[in-house]
Each structure stands twice: as structure tokens, then as C-alpha cells.
Amino acid sequence: MTPSTEVTSQSSTPHLLRQGLRIIADEQLSNGEIPNYQCMPDESWQYCFSPLISTYMYDELSCFDPLSGRFEPYAVERSEKVRRFLFLRSVARIRQKIRRFLAWQESSTGCWRFFGQGSGLPPDLDLTACAATVLIDPNNSPLSPATERRILDLERFRTPDGIFRSVGSRDEGHPSPVLFWIANCNALRYLALAGGETEVLESAILDALTSGVAAMDGALPLHYAAARAWRHGMLASRSTLASCLLPLALEQSHSSKGPLSAALTVLVLTDLGAPEPEIDSAVLKLLAWWDSPLNRKFETFCTSLCGSPALTAAFTMAAVARGRTSSAVLP
Q1: By percentage, how much of the chain surpasses pLDDT 70?
Q2: Contact 62, 71 (CB under 8 A)
Q3: Cβ neighbours around 237 below 10 Å, total
Q4: Which of 135, 107, 125, 108 lies closest to 116, judged by CA?
Q5: How far is it, in rounded angstroms, from Cα 223 to Cα 245?
Q6: Is the pLDDT score of 39 beyond 90?
Q7: What are phi and psi of 326, to 5 degrees?
Q8: Residues 166, 179: contact at Cβ < 8 Å?
Q9: Which residue, among 138, 37, 78, 115, has the nearest Cα to 283 in the 3D structure?
Q10: CB neighbours of 293 closer than 8 A, spacing ≥ 6?
Q11: Lowest CB count within 10 Å: 80, 101, 186, 264, which one?
């Protein structure tokens, strides 16, 4: 499929938000988990338990939750006015259930395992950083004893060179550099939000990105993780990051492979302060992808171990609502 820039009536923002929330609510299990799926060799999708998808879902819905420190009133104004209270209440309920699920999955040692606390694999850096960040939004002060304990838990992953690693946590032989630096970006975000030390890690990530990691195949999720970390952490070197990633994001905006990658591109452009016309153009391409058949909502995130129509919905909702797009383009 080649997405066009024509926007149909089904692409209106209120309709998309309503449809996306329905997909998420239908997918969420009674224990709060957002199911994760693995892409099999025959291109079918099989349920694969991992709490990681739930952490990303929680974060992307934060712009619609008045209880969150990352609530964006302008994003909520994109929803239908007559159903806005119901929309807000549904988002808050979904996030609350995810929060309880992730708290349940925390191990007695204070970390999270990629395939759940019952897994025999070592704790996973990426999931631990993401889940720990969930638990400081919205009700926990960054200076609380629980947050300070989780900073110490995260420090277990730090190596003498100041970078974080969790070898073997996903039973992989040689983790890709993209996944490695995504995990470090998420660790940086948690440390910045929780009041930890960030300078060494921030410098290491910037060096890696500017040295070529950002230009690797499949690096779009890394661009997203870095842009999110710098924006949420209000890190001073954001302009340096933008000069590295924005040209790549603008190039990516013309070649997205599905609605998830199109949504990630919009979020990268938005978080790095791209010009409004560029964001508008990327949003239009995202809407065209979103109107494609439902099976297109399955798109791998980072690796074949992660994918979910609910995740695609959450990224798309946040991208369209947060993108600085004129009401004339997006009704």
C-alpha cells in the first residue's frame, strides 16, 4: 500500500481517538495487561507474554490523563466534546489498571523481567527503566523512598564505562546496537525524572547517535526513545540531539512502512520541535495508514518479539492529538 495524503471523513481526529481507545479497551485483559504478540516466521502473530508493551501504552496515553504529570490539555481538546468526560475517565481507568499490573510484575529484587517475573532469565534493563518510570507518574514523588530504591536497582545494570547493560535478559545471542541504546535512553529518562545522575549516560548516548547508530537500519524506535528521553527529562543538550535526528526523521516521514512507524515519526518530529508543516505532512501520512485494513495495525516494535494493535492505536492517538496540526486539516 502507498499511503496518500487524502484525508477521509474516517480520519478525523475525534473518530480516530474513539476508535483507538476502543481497540485498546478491547485488548486490555482483566489484570490490566496489554497483550504482547510475537511475529512468527510465517508472518502470523502469536501471544507472547511481556509487560514491555504495557509500559509504552501507559506513557503514550499520559497526554490524555489529567492525573498525569505529562497531561496535555490541547491533546484532549481533539476528542469529541460531548464524550470528553467519558473519554478521560476511560483513559484514566486503562492507565490505572496498567499501573497495578506492572506493580504486580515487579520482582522481589526490585527489577522487571522481559518475559514476566516467572521467567528464569535475568532482569531486563529496558523493561525495568520503563516500568519504574510508570511508577513515578502520577502519584509518587520523585524523591520518595520507593523511587530512590529503584534508582539503586537501576544502578545494578551500570558498567564501569557508565553505560547500562542487561546481557541475556531476552535470551538473545547478540543484542542489536539499536535495542542496546534504546534501553540506555529509557534508563536516562528514568534517572532524569527521578533525580538521578545523568551526565555520563547522556554524553555516551549522544556520542553513539552522532557516530552512526542513529543511521542504522531499524533505528526509528531509537529516535523515538531518545527524543522522548530528552523531552521528558528536559535535558540541556536537546538541540544537539535534534540536529542529529531531525534530518533522519524528516527522511523517514516519506517512507513509513505502516501506521506504527508513521506514528513514531510524528512523535519524533513533535518531541524535537520540527517545523509545523513537516509535522502536518507526517500526520497526513499517518492518517492514510490508519485508514488501511485492521491487520495493518500489527507492526513489529523494535523486534519480532513485540507488536500489538493496541500499541499502534496508542502511538497513533498520541501522535495525531499532539501533532501541531491546523483544524482545517484535521477536523
Answers
A1: 92
A2: yes
A3: 13
A4: 107
A5: 7
A6: no
A7: -70, 150
A8: no
A9: 78
A10: none
A11: 80
Q: Which residues contact 171 (CB under 8 A, 6 or more apart)?
A: 121
Q: Which tens digits make up the pLDDT trace of 237-261?
A: 999 999 999 999 988 877 777 889 9
Whether the ω angle into residue 14 lies within 30 degrees of 0, i.e. cis, is no
Single out the residue of 264, 266, 286, 289 nearest to residue 1, CA to CA.
289
* Residue type present at position 1: M
Cell of 236: 540541556
Which DSSP category does 305 fall into?
T
Summarised one tens digit per residue, pLDDT across range 170-185 is 877 677 899 999 999 9
Q: Where are the alpha helices (DSSP H) in the chain?
A: 13-27, 52-60, 73-76, 84-105, 125-134, 145-155, 177-194, 199-210, 220-233, 238-252, 259-271, 276-290, 309-322
DSSP 8-class letter at 280: H
CA geometry: angle 54, 148, 184, nearest 5 deg: 55
Strand partners, 39: 45
Q: Report how far residue 325's alpha carbon sits from residue 1's, in angstroms, rounded to the nearest whole number.
A: 24
Strand partners, 46: 38
| Alpha carbon distances (Å) from 127 to 134, 170, 186 | 11, 11, 9
How far is Cα 238 from Cα 147, in angstroms, rounded to an integer?
25
Q: Which helix (H) or strand (E) holds 61?
A: none
Lowest mean pLDDT among 178-182, 214-218, 238-242, 287-291: 287-291
